[in-house]
């Protein structure tokens, strides 16, 4: 919910406004939240005077995250301000230029976090990253780069095929939120490469595909919604079925996060999907999932339970008012009204622990949330209800897994809802299972925060691979 600086990394083109003050350069800063997270903002300027920006999180080995919007303006006091947003991971920042080398501001991702950025000639660098599970050649199977067309686009991917001449069962992998490559690369982890390797060694043909606009796939990711990604999956499924190595009676889908939301949609619309594997699948309305997700992220960041409970209904109300606003100005005004009403009746200690240290903070939060929540993708996504699709899978075999420590798709909220929908629809063969000690990426976690994803060497817990292959061997082969 592929939600996150710290989670699903986006590759959007920036929308830039003209600025009067030169803020080009490398800006380093450190977020003080559940451990230090170093950030680097790279600001450049074109010959026409327009600014562009990218963000790095070197501690998580994430680089070149393009901003959706970077603005440099003068405020009412005549000071220079810099604002940037990365919409789908709900990250925003606004800072005031204190001097030639210092921006003092607020980083927002669910809560407000003070962040001072310092202009430097050298960017923070990545730590040594070890990813021992990433498959390396030579492989005991065929690995082929493929290009195919459909839906008016070109798609690029990798298909892996077991040795032998027989027709094999096959799986299409579906990525989570954000612009993902075929390996669902995040913080140098390549979970889809690891899954594809395990399944191909077990006798399955596996196709993994670059998202539209990423890698070898064409299209505009930034203007697309989940409905567009459903079309992409249908095209890739048709291609996979057409391969001569594939047993077209035993073809299925494996989706993670938003991909596990897409898989039931596709399977409910077709009659030729034999099975689906859902990793961290939404089971409730997304607006309810996001509210619980925000609360879990706050709790994992050390915010006391009382403050979390105080803010939960406010967060949901902000989302609701923004997506129902007729224009950006009313979205911002309505969000500010919700925040102001809550602010006026909330004690100072609760406000401070949530990052609201002055009246200006609530105005900045309203502005930033209205920018993030107003994107076309988010408007479609937040109104989605997975229940009708899950309950319409009567002839599809289903395995649904969640990590018990997942703070993005909370298992206790979503897995029972998935189970109930499958029962309601009288799905003939299904299993839902909560795997203890695993986070949203299905890693064995310690702190189980979002920022820990990149700090762990493990890409995916072996028990996950064993559970998937065991279920497939029993129910599909």
Tell me the number of strands.
18
CATH class categorisation of the largest domain: Alpha Beta
Q: Mind summarizing the main beta sheet?
A: 10 strands, mixed
User: What name does the CATH topology of the largest domain carry?
Assistant: Rossmann fold
Which whole number gives the mean pLDDT?
A: 90
| Strand ordering within the main sheet | 1-6-7-8-9-10-2-3-4-5
* Tally of individual helices: 12
Q: Report, as a whole number of angstroms, the end-to-end distance.
A: 31 Å
How would you explain this protein's 3D organization?
The chain is α/β, with parallel strands linked by helices and 477 residues long. The protein folds into three domains: 15-120, Lipocalin; 142-285 and 384-475, Alpha/Beta hydrolase fold, catalytic domain (Rossmann fold, 3-Layer(aba) Sandwich), CATH 3.40.50; 286-381, no CATH class. The protein is 32% helix and 27% strand. The protein is built from twelve helices and 18 strands. A hairpin with a 2-residue loop joins β11 and β12.
Q: How would you briefly describe this protein structure?
A:
Helix content is 32%, strand content 27%. The chain is built from 12 helices and 18 strands.
Descriptive labels:
477 residues; alpha/beta; Lipocalin; Rossmann fold; 3 domains; ten-stranded mixed β-sheet; eight-stranded mixed β-sheet; globular; disordered N terminus
List strands and helices in order, with pairings.
Layout: E1 15-16, E2 25-32, E3 36-45, E4 51-57, E5 62-66, E6 69-74, E7 80-86, E8 91-99, E9 102-109, E10 111-120, E11 142-150, E12 153-161, E13 168-174, H1 191-201, E14 205-209, H2 226-242, E15 246-256, H3 258-269, E16 275-279, H4 286-300, H5 305-323, H6 328-344, H7 348-353, H8 359-373, H9 376-382, H10 387-390, E17 397-403, H11 411-424, E18 430-435, H12 462-475
Parallel strand pairs: 1-6, 13-14, 13-15, 15-16, 16-17, 17-18
Antiparallel strand pairs: 2-3, 2-10, 3-4, 4-5, 6-7, 7-8, 8-9, 9-10, 11-12, 12-14
